[in-house]
Specification:
Elements: E1 2-8, H1 20-34, E2 37-44, H2 54-64, E3 71-75, H3 85-97, E4 101-104, H4 111-121, H5 129-140, E5 152-154, E6 160-162, H6 164-178, H7 184-193, H8 206-214, E7 222-224, E8 227-229, H9 239-254, E9 270-272, E10 279-289, E11 296-306, H10 307-312, E12 319-321, H11 322-334, E13 345-346, H12 350-383, H13 389-419, H14 423-440, H15 446-456, E14 457-463, E15 466-471
Parallel strand pairs: 1-2, 1-3, 3-4, 9-14, 13-15
Antiparallel strand pairs: 5-6, 7-8, 10-11, 11-12, 14-15
Helix pairs in contact: 3-13, 4-12, 11-14, 12-13, 13-15, 14-15
Length: 473
């Protein structure tokens, strides 16, 4: 069995952490006693919580290598994985998501339980007791906390009151679903075709329709912070109709298997040539019975589809197989001559690209914050017994995998901002990225391939009969 070690120096004010030399010595002895082959060790200094951890990042990159085989990551204690509980939990799930088994040298077999105990005792990731008590008192009175749901506004005494033109749409959505039997996608299409807009003046999507159908506020009950106040505001839907809608939603949901998050190479780069909206990655699993022997066969399909069609039922059914579209992009880049500049048009100007790269950095940072908040909510729920450990494990690993992908996007975006100071340097970097994509496409891992594409490509405009690749200037 092969093992790698991870150690870090104590942060400011942290006690009970051995020196790096002692940690390394204990690691060697631990591996010798258990018969593990020592492969490598990774070390971080005593950096502040908001500073990067180069040692842990090197460990992550090492675990991404396809030739690494099965490995165990050995660390002194579960707390050695992070400088606070949030970072520790994130690192714990990241390592497991990369296929490594994590062992602690202190002999703790239930590291997850230890982490949850520490989380339950900590105030991290939770609203302070005084703030929570104040909000609960407001909630008991039926006073609105946060943004009111569609169909209502905040009226006198901080209570919800109807917005007539929005209330009509809410009732219409429930009627289309319950009485006319339309699915969520068709309801969104119906509203959009009739010119009805959301509160912000945008088109309706499947997510916005689903949120309305699940919102108990339309029963006239205000719910917040575990407090329910029946009859706090005018109801829009009867309790019988609402219950029937939830039964239908549950029945449709249980008829499908739980989707597994799987990143797509061209996410954020592919655009529909007909409406200009993004193409999003969609996965489908189908099964059928063979006529010859009656056995059941299954297959998974991945493709890109116009987002307007998928979420809003607008535009036509423009769909491309993921492998085919990605292969076509590879072929296009492989035949590219940067000096010609004819078949491939550069998008935008230098100042616009710099502003776009900075905007992308801010957007990716916001995405990282959102992922951290989701992990905190899952940890809170598990620490209070509202989420099983098995479910926490599944959700935590999925979030960690998504976060690693977003972090790679951030690194690429920050590099583009730095390189903007020199047009020549940026062009050289672009040429090198194009060369790597052309010659090593099949040997590059997903993260590297996607990062290089974002360095080179501004967008891929996808039509039914071909594509146009626009390079970054």
């Amino acid at each position: 069995m092969r093992a790698v070690g991870y150690f870090r120096e104590a942060s400011a004010g942290e006690r009970g952490v051995a020196s790096l030399a002692d940690q390394s010595k204990t690691f060697i002895e631990f591996c010798r006693d258990h018969g593990y082959e020592v492969v490598a060790s990774f070390v971080d200094g005593s950096a502040a919580i908001d500073e990067p951890r180069p040692g842990f990042q090197q460990l992550v990159e090492f675990l991404k290598r396809p030739e690494k085989g099965f490995l165990m990551v050995v660390t002194p204690t579960i707390n050695s994985l992070g400088r606070d509980l949030k970072e520790t939990a994130r690192s714990w799930f990241e390592l497991q998501g990369l296929g490594a088994q994590v062992l602690t040298m202190d002999g703790e077999e239930d590291a997850t339980g230890l982490l949850l105990q520490a989380w339950a005792k900590s105030s991290e990731g939770r609203v302070g007791d005084k703030v929570r008590s104040a909000m609960r008192r407001k909630a008991v009175k039926g006073e609105v906390l946060g943004r009111p749901p569609y169909g209502y506004r905040v009226g006198s005494r901080r209570r919800l009151e109807l917005v007539p033109e929005e209330a009509v749409v809410v009732r219409y959505i429930f009627r289309l679903y319950l009485q006319e039997g339309l699915g969520i996608r068709r309801i969104a299409r119906c509203l959009n075709e009739e010119g009805l807009k959301t509160r912000r003046g945008g088109n309706w999507s499947m997510v916005s329709i689903r949120d309305i159908l699940r919102n108990r506020a339309y029963l006239g009950t205000y719910s917040r912070f575990g407090v329910r106040v029946p009859g706090s505001h005018p109801a829009l839907i009867s309790s019988d109709d609402f219950r029937r809608v939830q039964d239908c939603l549950m029945a449709r949901r249980s008829s499908y298997s739980t989707p597994q998050a799987s990143p797509f190479l061209l996410s954020g780069l592919a655009y529909c040539a007909y409406c200009g909206n993004k193409m999003i990655g969609v996965s489908r699993r189908q099964s059928w019975k063979r006529q010859k022997d009656g056995t059941v066969a299954e297959a998974s399909y991945r493709y890109y589809q116009c987002q307007s069609r998928t979420n809003q039922s607008l535009c036509d059914y423009h769909t491309r197989r993921a492998d085919d579209l990605e292969s076509e992009v590879h072929q296009s880049l492989s035949t590219l001559d940067l000096g010609a500049g004819q078949a491939f048009r550069h998008a935008g100007d230098q100042d616009a690209v710099l502003a776009e790269s900075k905007d992308e950095c801010r957007e990716v940072q916001r995405r990282l914050t959102q992922l951290d908040k989701r992990l905190e909510r899952h940890m809170d729920a598990a620490a209070r017994g509202r989420l099983s450990r098995e479910k926490l494990q599944s959700l935590g690993i999925a979030l960690a995998a998504e976060r690693l992908d977003v972090e790679a996007r951030l690194v690429a975006a920050e590099r583009r901002v730095d390189e903007h100071a020199s047009v020549a340097a940026r062009r050289r970097a672009q040429e090198q990225a194009l060369l790597r994509l052309s010659d090593r496409w099949d040997s590059l891992d997903f993260t590297s391939r996607r990062s290089l594409l974002r360095d080179v490509v501004d967008r891929v405009v996808v039509a039914d009969d071909g594509i146009k690749v626009q390079l970054r200037p």
